[in-house]
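The instructor's notes for this session suggest beginning with a concrete chain rather than abstract definitions. Hand out the sequence below and ask the class to guess, before any prediction is shown, which regions might be ordered.
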Amino acid sequence: MAGTLLGSLMTYVLQRRVAVRGEAFARSEALRRERMTTYSTFAEAVEDYRHGQAERWYSGQEDPGGEAYIAARDEAHRRRTAARQALYRVRLLTDDPRVNAAAERAYACTWEISNARDQSGRDARDAEARRAIEEFVTRAAPLVR
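After discussion, reveal the predicted structure:
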């Protein structure tokens, strides 16, 4: 009888350990998938915002008060909002301060593109924004592997 009781107890302990490990794995896998979606969405949104900033800058150079500039400006604002919303999701899912800082930098560098005074300044800011986006992806990648 003692052997049966001991066997039942051992079975319970082992099953409980397996269940706890399974739950932990399921949680970590769900977090990994959520991060993958969030990080790729952010990179896509900030890249889209970068293109919108370029359109805004070029149309502003051609005709600062024209309809094309106003449409490009409004579209850049829409894209900025989408990028900012994606940035918030990154912040909510990430404990790593380097990933959060890289995301903030990518957003800020992209914002700066439309403030360039001339073509070389625009090109430099655009290149900096591209590097910042790449840096974000590089920093975030280990969290989804």
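Then share the key points. The CA atoms of residues 52 and 77 lie 8 Å apart. The longest helix spans residues 2-62.
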